[in-house]
Amino acid sequence: MEQIHWVRHCWQQLVATESGRGQYTAPAALPTKTSPVLHNTQGLTGKRRTVIARHGRHQHEYHSISKGCQGNGIRTTKYSLLSFIPMNLFQQFHRAANLYFLFLVMLNWFPVVEAFGKEITMIPLVVVLIVIAIKDALEDYRRYRFDQKVNNNIATVYSGKQQTYVDQRWQDVHVGDFVRLSCNEIIPADMLLLYSSDPHGVCYIETANLDGETNLKQRQVVRDLPQQGSELTPENFHSRIECESPNNDLSRFRGYMEYPSKARVGLHNDNLLLRSCTIRNTETVIGIVVYAGHETKAMKNNSGPRYKRSKLERRLNVDVLWSVVLLVIMCLTAAIGHGLWLRNLKEASFLIPDTTSPALSGFYLFWTMIIVLQVLIPISLYVSIEIVKLCQIFFIQNDVDFYNEYMDSRIQCRALNITEDLGQIQYVFSDKTGTLTENKMVFRRCTIAGVEYPHEENARRLEVYEEDEAMGCSHTLKSRASAKSLSCKSLSCNRSSVSLHTLTGHSEGEEPPSPTLPQQSAFSSPLEKDIVPDPFLVQKLNSLSSPLFLLKDASMELTYIVDFFMALAICNTVVVSSPNQPRHVVQVPEVSCTPLKSLEDIKMLFQRFGLPRFSTLSPPHTTESPRSFTRRLFSRGKAASFTPSPSPTPTKRGTGPDGEPNLEASILSIKPVSNPGEDGDRGYEEEGEHGSWKGEENKMLHLTLGACSGLGNSNGAQGPPGEPGADELIYEAESPDEAALVHAARAYRCTLQGRSLESLLVELPGMGSLAVRLLHILPFDSTRKRMSVVVRHPLTNQVVVYTKGADSVIMDLAESPKGAEQSDGRQGHIREQTQKHLDNYAREGLRTLCVAKKVLEEEEYEIWLKRHAFAETSIENREELLLESAQRLETNLTLLGATGIVDRLQEEVPETIEALQRAGVKVWVLTGDKQETAINIACACKLLRSTDQLLTANCGSKEACKALLLELRAEVERGEAAEGTSGFTLVVDGRTLDFALQEDLKGDFLELSRRCRAVVCCRSTPLQKSHVVKLVRDQLRVMTLAIGDGANDVSMIQVADVGIGISGQEGMQAVMSSDFAISRFKHLRKLLLVHGHWCYTRLANMILYFFYKNVMYVNLLFWYQFFCGFSGSVMTNSWVLIFFNLLFTSAPPLLYGILDKDVSADTLIKLPELYKSGQNSKAYLPSTFWLTMLDALYQSLVCFFIPYFANAGSDADMLTFGSPINASALLTILLHQVIESCTLTWLHVLVLVGSALFYFSFTLVFSVVCVTCSPPTNPLGVDKLQMSQPLFYGVCALTTVLALLPRFLFHALRNSISPSDTLKAALMDQLNPENYCRRMQRWNQTQAQSKARGLVINVEDLDFKIPDFILPKEL
């Protein structure tokens, strides 16, 4: 059957190639099954790249083939010296506001509609363009300096002319060049690895510059190179490389290399060295450049800052449109009035005869008024918003509370224009592992062969550690190496790397840490390493080398235990390093397959396993070899080995068909005495052939400290002479789970001591160091949810598959072959007991992982190997074929046991979630963990309260899901109707979530979930997470925030309105996709409740203030049109008109938006309820906007008509009339901000007084020195005369008071009769500490009393509403 599948697959590939669907032709001869290199020779589909050596016999083809490839120089700048002005202007005029004002400038050049001097009209636009251009130029210059620094780095590149390697700048490297790198050097371009000084062709790289991960990753030289094993000679390299076009997928690379013999070998990601990574643990590597410069994967992923549109900005755009409507209405009014005025005017002596009709004159005046009233559209507002947001980001990034000393990291603001959205969040979607928890996986307990080992001493160790950490004792974790890319200078490598910060935003002024400092590997803190073994398990393992083993019936269980810890030690990709050479791999020394000294040692070892034990059932001198018995002992996990073989000849009990003693049969037939009252969880007892090991603990002697000291102290394990001791090893794992399991195995002296490409060195208790031949690694992927290693067992020489993975997957795969009744009974019991233990672990909040094995027959392995080799060497569909191959192998597994790993909550997580809930934010947890684990974590972090009613949704079909959702919804409605119900928490599993997200059920699911106080989605996939966030965001129209730390959270982070990445233990994928990056979940509390509140209120108030001052001043010009025949004239000179908004009133709003503080940070933290004002957009409602417009209208009337009546009947000219209007309007606008501001400091006073003095100084100087500055009017001496008269100051004072009186009275009455929560909190800030504490207690008591009536969410309508809290009147 396997051959039929193989022939069918080859036929399909052949047909696909001949039909022209591939890009390349197949070789002339059909490959045979024994030539895996030639198995798959069809080409890459889609676009591809051809790479040949730049210097070689194909040099004449190089330029034609590589002409489309980019050089290695990078340029992140937008402009050059020549292109700066045109490019910058082109980009700036992409903004609608700039185009609008450019239109006005051009319009003013037409004489029929000209309102001011042509040059004067250009001033506002030119000033704005210059300010933005200077900012862009400074940013671009900073990028230019960084580019030069990177491009001028030196690499060793092969020179065809000199026939040797020479130093070249990075920017001079090209596709097809051979580059030689040494240890600790940074890779200058994406290169295909062709040579490594490692004898196995392995190279180790550190990708910290790329994704933040500091653990080592292994890369492999391209297989079957003609010069394999010797240093590559570039002039002899004649192969051709075909690979996919440049892309940004860091985890995938596809292509093939065609040798001169026309043989092809597939290329994959393990052969590619990525730009910005650092060479580690390898003296020399040589590669050929396939992608350079901006075509490298690192640069393809360097997207820079993220830009989004905030909710406030969308609201602002609507109000700008209303301003346009208001402008059109005012201009139409003036145009119609002008036409009517001309029509009714008969032969006026002051009119110049003109043939223009009144209607046409009105049309011309419409455009003139557009120019005159242009200030109504706030062009400077957009510039001011950018400046304010940059300052807000500066304050956020420099908040010391966000600094993490342990990781030497601070908050990163990657999205520059959504800071105000932080103050309007209504839903938070959080990952669990690494987000709510530490992601420091610590081995807690385990179950092996159905026997649970609680590790109570280890639990007490963790409790003591937590207590000491909380008290700040000295032995808590030391500061880990910086999050920046640190290079460790080894004894044998002279160069040290310099971090290029290719994807990070470190400033140039930061001093890089010393490269000679030792770097602690990830996941290797004392908390994770110092595991206290379970004494019962220690006792059983000690029996391998103890005479006490002769008294025990534990051979079968011991087989499971040894296999279990063997799997923990080798089923991983952990790199073993040495501390004296921190980033150098400990290689596997030459060790014979049999680690024991002589054949007599082997006999003695396995005589302890069996012979005295069965002396009463078999002859005293057995003829079976120890190796034969070992093969049987270590193959217990194979189900078929327990199946009785039918024999035509009856055999004596305890002997085999050949007359030799059948030790296996003897083992299976013995039933030791056990206590009938023993707890079943400690073992199991079964009659007959299934054997028993129940109650073995009672048969063993209690261990003293001295008896188990050699095993219990994980730091004291020593290997054979000449090998590194266990306490001298450093494990560098790709995930915290892997590290936890390897440290757990090490605690039991099952120590991984070294790793090479083909073998592992493992120390087992009582057996010494064993060289385990590594055949294959089937890495973990999210589809299979498991990983496996295929090894040649060092004792039995059998091919064994060790698998570890999610319990939901492994338990399904742990099935015995049909017909293996004996094993099925034993395995059935083990599965049953293990499942019980897994459920208990989940209820305790532990992360569970199952371990299993499978023994392959040689023939079975050879069949699988052929298909797997075909998949490995495949060029097309390699990932799919490898997945299929792994799934084919990982079946009918023998369950060994399971582990429980504790992942502690981060500090202050419960307090943070409680504060967010008090702030009216709904928190959802989306996790891939088991339901029990998720519920336990929800309880621990106070997401699920003891008074909440828990609703669980676990359905097996769509119909059942619909019925359950309706039932749960009815239950929630009944609970809401009843008094005293505190709330509901919904828990949904992944399968039910699939049904609930379908089109016809998502409405019911959403209606149910929005009525619940919290929702926990367990067993959810990354795609489900993003769908949930999108559903809530779009259907409920609420502001959403997603927070996570891993690559599986990226889609959720990108879908949410605000995405936050945690720079934790799982690299930088989430950070690079986020809008903001923090190091701890607790920082979310201050980021939202304090900075979010401040950013929103400041920006909202500043925008309203801008609209107010523009409308107020424009209305002054509009009222004047009623007294000048709607002619478009103004009562002030054009310079003052242009500078009024551009200079005189521009600085105070900026200060208002940057520094205004309504409530202190401490009060906002202590009273999260204050955050609700931002959720409901109270600072910037449509009603608030129109009330502000009405207030501006009133103030403009006062500022215009009081000077008008004061000058009534006088001979004051136009400029004399306009002078007090301008002065009083300026004072009113500045003092209006004083009334609205919550903070007044010396800086505010300085800016406000400075703005007023600047206006009066400018107008005074202007009126003294300017004679013809503003034709046709002449301002000479006007303001000088006005400022010398008392009437001017009296009019200004009276006008200002009357204009501001209504707003002042409104604030006084509102704050006295119905003060807002924010005002009450601000008053509490002014109290002395004793009164402050007393009133804060009253506040909290009032909140507790009013929670039942105040926290109920209105569910009658779909919009998310949060009612106000009722505060005590004495506050």
UniProtKB/TrEMBL annotation:
What SUPFAM superfamilies does the entry give?
A: Calcium ATPase, transduction domain A, Calcium ATPase, transmembrane domain M, HAD-like, Metal cation-transporting ATPase, ATP-binding domain N
Annotated region (Disordered) at 503-524, 637-693
Domain (P-type ATPase N-terminal): residue spans on this chain: 67-121
For activity, the cofactor(s) needed are: Mg(2+)
What are this entry's molecular-function GO terms?
ATP binding; ATP hydrolysis activity; ATPase-coupled intramembrane lipid transporter activity; magnesium ion binding
Q: Which domain of life is it from?
A: Eukaryota
Does the record bear Lipid biosynthesis in its keywords? no
Q: What is its EC number?
A: 7.6.2.1
The record's family statement is:
Belongs to the cation transport ATPase (P-type) (TC 3.A.3) family. Type IV subfamily.
> Which keywords describe this protein according to UniProt?
ATP-binding, Endoplasmic reticulum, Magnesium, Membrane, Metal-binding, Nucleotide-binding, Translocase, Transmembrane, Transmembrane helix
Segments passing through the bilayer: 97-116, 316-342, 362-385, 1120-1144, 1185-1205, 1242-1267, 1287-1306
Q: Give the coiled coil ranges.
A: none
By its UniProt entry, which Gene3D superfamilies does this protein fall under?
Calcium-transporting ATPase, cytoplasmic domain N, Calcium-transporting ATPase, cytoplasmic transduction domain A, Calcium-transporting ATPase, transmembrane domain, HAD superfamily/HAD-like
Tell me where in this chain the P-type ATPase C-terminal domain is found: 1071-1315
The name under which this protein is listed is: Phospholipid-transporting ATPase
Where does this protein have compositionally biased stretches of type Basic and acidic residues?
679-693
